């Protein structure tokens, strides 16, 4: 699963039994090391914890039920935190969660989602975010 895994976690918590998926590649013939190499090089994995620390591939949970919530990426608790909502409103993909984690207080994301989303949108459109994929800020002419 390379995208929407936190949504899958929320659906698991809600005991949803079936979901639609799209297969983007069949990598079952690969041994573990080349498998993880391919995922990493295609940006199909982001092995970072909820504090933004990178971990080894072996630390990635084998099941969505074992995922730890990262409120800067997507929150099963409220079905969308700033990065998840931001992805649809302002930018296209992570690393926006890491960008926001360095600029916003986690407590605000967890306790005042509307204010956090407003701040996240401003940050995402700022010149500081111009390196992020899908950046949609103003361009100086």
Task: Please describe the structure with a list of short key phrases separated by commas or semicolons.
141 residues; mainly alpha; Conserved hypothetical protein from pyrococcus furiosus pfu- 392566-001, ParB domain; 6 helices; 36% helix; globular
In summary, what is this structure?
This protein has 141 residues and is mainly alpha-helical.
| Strands, count | 0
Report the mean per-residue pLDDT as an integer.
77
What is the end-to-end distance?
A: 41 Å
Order of helices and strands: HHHHHH
Q: CATH homologous superfamily of the domain at 5-66, by name?
A: Conserved hypothetical protein from pyrococcus furiosus pfu- 392566-001, ParB domain
SS element count, helices: 6
Largest sheet: none
Please describe what this structure looks like:
- The protein is mostly helical and 141 residues long.
- It has a domain at 5-66: Alpha-Beta Complex (Conserved hypothetical protein from pyrococcus furiosus pfu- 392566-001, ParB domain).
- It is 36% helix and 0% strand.
- The chain has 6 helices and no strands.
- Helix 3 (82-89) crosses helix 6.
- Mean pLDDT is 77; it is low at 75-82 and 86-93.
How would the blueprint of this fold be written?
Layout lengths: L4 H9 L18 H10 L40 H8 L6 H6 L4 H6 L1 H12 L17
Helix pairs in contact: 3-6
